[in-house]
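Ops channel
N.P.: pipeline sanity check, posting one input/output pair.
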């Protein structure tokens, strides 16, 4: 398969790197000094599952030069997806399909609005990974996985072919019975973790241990479950218990990428995660007081990070 990775940050760099290491035909869409470092030194991935370097690496900042791909992995941040959808047009031919791996729920619809429903899968991933330097990705924790499927839940040859491609690369890949439910379960987990982590400034080991913040987490889960129900998404009956158990199983120092972005003054996925809960709740007439409080509390820092508001740190 000809695989284009649009957005060679932590997620795109790791999964694209694994696919390239396994011999797949992978081209990375990257920018600036990160791109130049990859072209000069290769893509370096340090991983708890074994370090490796992809060299030489196919990489460019011009999607038109990359040509049409069989599949496009979208590794951009959630807030970058609408712009990315326009930029990736040269990668998309009649048979191309697109796998978004962002946190949040809206990337498939945003991609489909620009590129067409027939090209877009639903997808999600899990791993603790970050950009350690130019051309350098570090996978520091969690067994990496990807889950994906057709948005209408039908079986398809292209989804099965992609699953087999990931498995050959040593990546745990799964096709859930209902990708919408899988997306909401990931959203339930990441939105509550991101919101609590960002508003408290504390790693998961702290907020899950204090009765007051643990109660906030439970309230946050209840709000999202109620919103999902109002949108006709049937989550498992034990969704809340399963998610709390996942929080309890995390390394105590763990944080989310949204939390780290907020704390370090960078643009974050606030709108795609916490803001989405608030918006979906308003649309369905479901109260989301905790998420509304967190969203409003973090909004000034988000606007400052985006240059839309100025005040001293």
């Amino acid at each position: 398969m000809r695989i284009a990775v649009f957005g060679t940050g932590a997620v795109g760099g790791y999964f694209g790197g694994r696919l390239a290491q396994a011999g797949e035909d992978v081209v990375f869409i990257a920018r600036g000094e990160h791109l130049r470092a990859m072209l000069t030194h290769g893509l370096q991935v340090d991983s708890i599952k074994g370090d490796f370097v992809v060299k030489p690496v196919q990489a460019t900042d011009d999607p038109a030069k990359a040509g049409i791909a069989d599949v496009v992995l979208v590794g951009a941040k959630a807030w970058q997806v609408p712009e990315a959808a326009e930029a990736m047009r040269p990668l998309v031919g009649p048979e191309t399909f697109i796998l978004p791996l962002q946190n949040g729920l809206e990337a498939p619809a945003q991609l489909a609005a620009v590129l067409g429903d027939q090209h877009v899968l639903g997808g999600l991933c899990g791993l603790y990974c970050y950009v350690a330097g130019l051309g350098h990705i570090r996978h520091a924790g969690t067994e990496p996985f990807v889950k994906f499927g057709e948005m209408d839940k039908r079986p398809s040859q292209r989804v099965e072919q992609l699953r087999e491609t990931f498995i050959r690369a040593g990546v745990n890949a799964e096709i859930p019975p209902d990708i919408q439910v899988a997306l909401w379960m990931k959203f339930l987990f990441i939105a509550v973790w991101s919101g609590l982590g960002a508003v408290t400034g504390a790693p998961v080991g702290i907020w899950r241990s204090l009765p007051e913040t643990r109660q906030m987490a439970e309230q946050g889960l209840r709000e999202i479950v109620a919103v999902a129900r109002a949108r006709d998404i049937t989550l498992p009956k034990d969704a809340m218990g399963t998610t709390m158990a996942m929080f309890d199983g995390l390394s105590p120092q763990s944080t989310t990428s949204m939390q780290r972005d907020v704390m370090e003054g960078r643009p974050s996925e606030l709108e795609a995660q916490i803001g989405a809960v608030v918006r979906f709740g308003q649309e369905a007439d479901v109260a989301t007081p905790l998420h509304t409080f967190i969203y409003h509390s973090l909004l000034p820092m988000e606007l400052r990070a985006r240059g839309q508001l100025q005040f001293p740190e």
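N.P.: looks fine end to end. The two ends are 48 Å apart (CA to CA).
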